[in-house]
Design a protein that fits this description.
The protein is of the alpha+beta class and about 170 residues long. It has a single domain (about 5-165), classed as NADH Oxidase (3-Layer(aba) Sandwich), CATH 3.40.109. It contains 7 helices and 4 strands. The longest helix is centred in the middle third of the chain and has 18 residues, at about 95-110. It is globular and about 50 Å long.
Length: about 170
């Protein structure tokens, strides 16, 4: 699929078919994550692929939407702040770096004909416990992944003139 078509096609999907996602598709999506850029190329991220039904069900306590924990798989993006680049003003870039890699994942999934939905409104303490995350590893975002079983409505977006400034504010 052509790149700009992928950008326009991507939607947040909240209903998935039960069909499993083929391993070759998962591998290509994870390769897109692997090659994502990061500040100073530190790559302070870890991605956990969750297929086990009992683990997905346990994640229900962190985010209780049925479409989330019943999708064919879930991927949790984690950051490692101690391994991230830090700007001169002490701004740690772990969230930025993980977000870039996560968006690579979301776009690659769309290119594969799969649906995703960026989830950030979860209980991180539950995710840490369920996934057995060690100290220093923070869950930042999760997404269910599967074949869409819905056609979302068209996107509503601001115009370019509303969001772009030329030269100065």
């Amino acid at each position: 699929m052509e790149f700009y078509e992928v950008l326009k096609k991507r939607r947040s999907i909240r209903k998935y078919k039960k069909a499993p996602v083929e391993q070759d598709k998962i591998d290509r999506i994870l390769e897109a994550v692997r090659i994502a850029p990061s500040a100073a190329n530190f790559q302070p991220w870890h991605f956990i692929v969750i297929k086990d039904e009992s683990v997905k069900l346990a994640l229900k306590e962190a985010y209780g939407r049925e479409w989330f924990y019943t999708a064919p798989l879930i991927i949790c993006a984690c950051g490692e702040p101690a391994k991230a680049w830090v700007r001169r003003d002490k701004r740690n870039y772990v969230d930025v770096d993980v977000a870039i890699a996560f968006e690579h994942l979301v776009l690659a999934a769309a290119a594969e004909g799969l649906g995703t939905c960026w989830v950030g409104a979860f209980d991180p303490a539950v995710v840490r416990r369920v996934l057995g995350l060690p100290d220093g590893i923070e869950p930042i975002a999760m997404t269910p992944i599967g074949f869409p079983d819905e056609t979302p409505r068209p996107l509503s977006r601001k115009s370019t003139a509303e969001i772009v400034r030329r030269d100065r504010w």
